[in-house]
Amino acid sequence: MAQTLCQNRPVLLSHSCARIGRQLHNSLITMRSMTKSLSGLPSHLLRPHTGRAVPPSMLSSVGSTFGHFPCYGAPSHWTMHGAGRRFHSQLASSAMDTTAVPSAATTIEGRSIVDVLKERGLVDAITNEEELRKATGAGPIKVYCGFDPTADSLHLGNLLGILVLVWFQKCGHTPVALLGGATARVGDPSGKSAERPVMDDATIEANSKGIEAILRALLTQRDAPVPGMLLNNLEWFAGMGFLEFLRDVGKFARMGTMLNKDSVKTRLDGDGMSFTEFSYQLLQGYDFVHLSRTYGVTAQIGGSDQWGNITAGTDLNRRILGTEAESAFGITFPLLLKNDGTKFGKSESGAVWLAAERLSPFKFYQHLFAVPDVDVIKFMKML
Questions:
Q1: Are 168 and 113 in contact (CB under 8 A)?
Q2: What contacts 275, CB < 8 A, 6 or more positions away?
Q3: Whole-Å CA distances, 132 to 129, 329, 330
Q4: CA distance linking residue 156 with residue 158, whole number of Å
Q5: Average pLDDT of the chain to the nearest whole number
Q6: Taking a C-beta distance cutoff of 8 angstroms, is the pair 154, 354 a contact?
Q7: What is residue 150's DSSP assignment?
Q8: Cα 306 to Cα 281, 284, 334, distances in angstroms
Q9: What is the tens place of the pLDDT at every residue in 19-46?
Q10: In degrees, to the nearest 5, what angle opens at C-alpha 209 toward C-alphas 203 and 215?
């Protein structure tokens, strides 16, 4: 069982939370009452928050108590663009059971992606909902989400962005994952009370490789209706000089709009912020412009704390490309929060990482298993 959990890491990340939540919701009270009567099953298995390690030999007992988790979604084609080269990679496939929960290869027809996301609590705000419904109803669009490589792994909070891309993919649209190889050298000030430490190029490159591996595993599925795309914004920023950026991008920015962003106001009311951080919203905004002009991307998604950066992109699209605001869309989803307002992607020992090298699959499972009853239904919908 332990070997299965490690080999099929994407299962635990994208689908098993709902399954674990369902098991927890239906049987938590019964399981607690069984603690004294179950022979050979330590009580800390029923209360994983104690932090005690569970021996691998006990996993068979866990499997017999909770049921085994089927595996979903073998990798398939992934289109990689970046750093001046383009190549196709065929990922290895393995036979996996896909009967219990629909895989990312499942196609949803006849439904608006907006309705699908709203039903699952994955919509916080949309720049122009009516026009987005028309655009997605008229045909497939390309939608992107950015991931800055500030660590060598994504964490549980990042999983929401990946899942929203997967839902777009199921509805026939093209998901685009953007690695922030350039923006990571600046640092996003959103949600931060102090400036991020500067990372060297070697660290950013290593982090990018780790995150790329996760995105490949989670966004590629056997028989996916639409192949995904992976890009790195270092490709277009590496050759752009400072004067060129000021001339081609900076002259379209308005200081009043930039200063009114919540992420900027919060920092200015505190210890202030550097010009480097202040310019981050322009870099992210230009990402949207470049993706629209070069790849035909028309929508950007991100967490609710990214609203200011996303609207900066839609505004730059209108100013630089002469595109009407209705043709460039921004969508935010709520942050993954528990009922008490704290982040679900955090644990006492730190972030809940998606990479097995940073956090064992069973500890990841324990974190999901310890979800309070009040949060189970919400997380079943979102995850």
A1: yes
A2: none
A3: 5, 7, 9
A4: 5
A5: 75
A6: yes
A7: S
A8: 9, 10, 10
A9: 444 554 454 444 444 434 444 434 333 3
A10: 135
